[in-house]
């Protein structure tokens, strides 16, 4: 019995040692793997009604990259222009630009271009259509458009339909409410080896894309809710004399394969 216990202990120690060794090499030689996680000080609760927003004047790391928020509660860029036209940009993690310095994101490049209006980017990781409505209603209706917003631009991803993964085929590796989920969260935020293994054994972009395609086709009530919320956003913009534009963003998997179409009922969102 004692030998079996020692055998198990030795093997556990060996696996952990190998894991830590590879972790060391990845941290030294691989700069492409980005750790997950966004510092909580960048985010404030209930900025737009029940929706969280950016914490004015804050700075911190998001997916390993330093990010800064301006005094108004939007992502800060090098350009600090005063313009007659202010563009409000809303989206999720893609438009926020996780893992990318603010000036290097596509919104940062737009903000710093010579001929562009001032860019007010309120995008935040985890945002969906419900948050978009809260942001627009708060800034244009409750605040009476005191920022002088002339255009609202929503950058739409397929997963903007929902806040929690619907259906049984969840693309995440574990339930976030149990101990395994907590352990995986720790590894996502602290281990490059974990990300290396995850990316090696699974195509995460494909998994999320295929999950979201099914959501559009199997949960029509979510599609209907999104249409209602977007129509409401459009009505608020019209009442304020503000133009609304929706940009449809593809998944990386769609760009890579060139054969992954949008959901068959996706045109009803547009």
Descriptive overview:
By secondary structure, the protein is an alpha/beta fold. The chain has two domains: 1-31; 40-165 and 207-268, Rossmann fold (3-Layer(aba) Sandwich), CATH 3.40.50. 43% of the residues lie in helices and 15% in strands. The chain is built from nine helices and eight strands. It has helices at 2-29, 93-96, 106-112, 129-142, 179-190, 192-201, 204-218, 220-239, 252-257, and strands at 43-48, 51-54, 59-62, 65-68, 86-90, 118-121, 149-156, 243-248. Strands 6-5-7-8 form a four-stranded parallel β-sheet, with helices on both faces. Helix 4 (129-142) runs parallel beside helix 8 (220-239). It starts with a helix and ends in a 13-residue tail after the last helix. 27% of the residues are buried. The model has no long low-confidence stretch (mean pLDDT 85).
């Amino acid at each position: 019995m004692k030998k079996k216990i020692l055998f198990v202990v030795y093997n556990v120690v060996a696996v952990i040692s190998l894991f830590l060794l590879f972790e060391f090499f990845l941290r030294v030689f691989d700069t492409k793997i980005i750790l997950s996680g966004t510092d909580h000080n960048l985010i404030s609760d209930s900025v737009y009604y029940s929706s969280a927003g950016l914490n004015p004047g804050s700075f911190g790391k998001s997916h390993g990259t330093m990010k800064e928020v301006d005094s108004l509660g939007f992502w800060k860029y090098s350009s600090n222009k005063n313009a007659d036209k202010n563009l409000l940009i809303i989206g999720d993690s893609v438009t926020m630009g996780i893992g990318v310095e603010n000036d290097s994101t596509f919104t940062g490049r737009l903000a710093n271009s010579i001929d562009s209006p001032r860019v007010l980017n309120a995008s935040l990781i985890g945002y969906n259509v419900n948050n978009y409505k809260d942001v627009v209603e708060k800034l244009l209706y409750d605040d009476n458009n005191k920022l002088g917003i002339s255009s609202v631009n929503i950058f739409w991803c397929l997963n903007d339909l929902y806040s929690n993964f619907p259906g049984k085929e969840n693309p995440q590796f574990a339930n976030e409410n149990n101990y395994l989920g907590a352990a995986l969260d720790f590894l996502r935020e602290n281990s490059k080896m974990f990300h290396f293994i995850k990316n090696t054994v699974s195509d995460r972009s494909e998994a999320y894309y295929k999950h979201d395609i099914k959501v559009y086709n199997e949960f029509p009530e979510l599609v209907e809710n999104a249409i209602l919320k977007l129509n409401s956003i459009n009505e608020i913009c019209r009442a304020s004399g503000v133009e609304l534009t929706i940009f449809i963003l593809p998944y990386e998997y769609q760009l890579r394969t060139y054969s992954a179409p949008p959901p068959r009922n996706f045109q009803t969102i547009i």
